[in-house]
Write a structure and sequence with these properties.
- With about 250 residues, this protein is mainly beta.
- The chain is built from 2 helices and 15 strands.
- The chain is about 10% helix and about 35% strand.
- Strands 10-11-12-15-14-13 form a 6-stranded antiparallel beta barrel. It has a 6-stranded antiparallel beta barrel with strand order 2-3-4-9-6-5.
- The structure holds 4-(aminomethyl)benzoic acid.
- 4-(aminomethyl)benzoic acid binds near residues 190, 214 and 215.
- It comes from Triplophysa rosa.
Amino acid sequence: IFGGRKSLPNAHPWQASLQFRPLGSNETFSHGCGGTLIDSCWLITAAHCVNENEEIRVELGGTNLEKDDTAKQFLEVEKAFVHENYTETNEALYNDIALLKLKAKNGRCALETDSVRAACLTRDSFPDGTQCTISGYGVTEKNDTVSPQLLDAKVLLISQRRCMSRNIYGNRMDDSMICAGYLQGKTDSCQGDSGGPLVCKKDETHYLHGVVSWGDSCGIKNKPGIYARVNKFIDWLHFVLRESLSETN
Ligand code: 4AZ
């Protein structure tokens, strides 16, 4: 997160750290992406975070990757579902969304606590200019490494029309994306925040509205962050969740 501040404990209880290591290796896991808990056994992340050749561990409930914390929960991934229309080009990432089904331990996945709680989903959109929140362990303006400390920042939803203007992202933007941040730069998501939440609040409820996806660098003027537009994928999300019920039952 560029231009962020230290997150308070329990401020983003849906925030996950996705930690990776090569399949079958004994290396330690290292943070690579964010994710958002939407149900005790389900996480939303970016499709570009899912790699067949890597084992994923999910860390929930913490605000510092380097601190032991009894509030942390570590879970494994049972199965990854990448959106079938996910496309990566030199211009953009399209439909950059994936669902991770967590592996149950003793019949349960994530346990709801003060520091672990799911974010909500909605089909509704939010008006342009709405102030929403991004959070993550990604790169900061201070140095080029991930931040062990969870950081967050307020960003504004920017209209599609504005973001599709030639001096911003032009036709690289489509309706699977949301643009958020500031045209003057400075405050933004960055590498390592990918897959993590853009959350907007309505009537005291926090909704996952975007998934950190891409952008031209970080914090640059006229290059706000691009997020997968979660409300465009509600039917797909429900379809995957329902489909996976019938797999085991
Ligand atoms: C990345 O490389 C990345 N400023 C994530 C977010 C943004 C840019 C790059 C948005 O994962």
